[in-house]
Amino acid sequence: HPSDEFEGRNNEKISYMKYYGDKYNKSIRDPKQPLIVSMPKVRDQRGGVTGPIYLVPELCNMTGLSDEQRANFQLMKTMGEYTRQDPVKRSETLAKFADRLNSKKEIVEELQAWNLKFSKDLVQFRARILEPELILGAGSSKATYQ
Questions:
Q1: Most buried among 6, 28, 41, 59, by the most CB within 10 A?
Q2: Nearest-angstrom CA–CA distance, 107 and 112
Q3: Segment 6-44, tens digit of pLDDT
Q4: Hey, is 36 helix, strand or coil?
Q5: Do the Cβ atoms of 3 and 31 come closer than 8 Å?
Q6: What is the C-alpha separation between 96 and 102, in angstroms, rounded?
Q7: How far apart are CA 32 and CA 3, in angstroms?
Q8: Is the pTM of the predicted complex or chain greater than 0.85?
């Protein structure tokens, strides 16, 4: 639990809550949440980390995909529908998201508690479209990225 103590520098006992508060100015809201235990990778072990690493879940963000997830064709196809949208679809998706942020009661209350506001409209600005560059390969091969 974040309220548990560990041995810090100079062999002093300090709780995870105090450590993250002092070092990173992060307050932990749930002192009873279980910690995530991560075993050090070989690279970390070479760097001197020998024991398990304890992580506070509310301070963690998931990154990357596991090999199993990458091998899942259906998952990758579905993710691609969101990550590779054309500009019109991306604008529609962001507009729906902004509408949800500003219309759902529980979201509005949470944002107000944090003193946050989001615009209902996307930012518009002037831009230009550049012609694709010609890519020269070995010998006389040429290609474009479109």
A1: 28
A2: 9
A3: 887 788 888 888 888 888 888 888 888 888 888 888 887
A4: strand
A5: yes
A6: 10
A7: 7
A8: no
